[in-house]
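Hi P.,

Sorry for the delay on this. The queue was packed all week, but I finally got your sequence through. Input first:
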Amino acid sequence: MKRAFFFALQYFVSFQKNTQIMYKHLFLFVGLFALLGCDEAYESDNSEPGNTTAPVSDFSPSGSNAYWIYDVASISSQVSEMNFTSTDSIYVASSNGTSFTLDANDDGIARGNMNILLTNGTLHKTSTTLVFNGTIDLPENLADLGFTQDLSIEDMILLDLNTSNNDELFSNETNFSETIDIQGVGIPVNVSSKISTTKINLHNSKTLNDTDYNNVFEAKFALNVAITGSFTIAGITQTIPILEAQDVMKTTYFYVENIGLVRAETTQGISLSNQLVSVLSLLNITLDFPTNITIENIEELRDFSLE
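Then the structure:
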């Protein structure tokens, strides 16, 4: 199944729509790198390392009147349009037993990357876990290019209190072939990807956003992608890397007992191969975007209510 790769693809496209970045041809290559950043000075950790187990509690409250307000900051030296600050108001849109959905802002569009993810599906929780399931319609611009895969991901574990530090919570590897259009030229591509979540630590106490919290679950979301393409030059077809294997999206996120998501740091980046740039030059195809892009996005909880 190709669900994990194309879910991340939709995730990136949605984020780009929010900020009105129209790098259409960048979508053709990967369609999923876009940003989430890390500020080394923001936090201090007062807990001891180890496999701490918190008492059974609620790390993702889902009361009908619950809401969370986040300050969002995006930074990119290569893409000026991705430099912005914003606010996300996230609230419980529906709740049915242990399952619930979240929505964002008046327009239904989140600006922070982690909240884009959380508002595009259904969350299921137990006393020790939080699991995400999402299904998203194929964006029209991708359908026009011939992409037909569904955009869904199932049973992605975001939080598990019973695992050890550095345990992988979820993993989905995908390999498939597709033909994409690059400025009128059909390019067969092979895509290998892995989407995963990993527990980092369960901190007894931790300072985040200049606030001290107890029982903080820290984890990481990662998307690793490698893409090769077949190009024909002077009647000779050769396969070259479009994207060397690399993490195109990484998010470190923090859930706090009886509060929910308190902070998320995302770094999205892409580095196109030198071989690709050379071949496109031979084919007289000019790229209208940088070959190396890094975008950082930080979400900080400012206020919340669970009543």
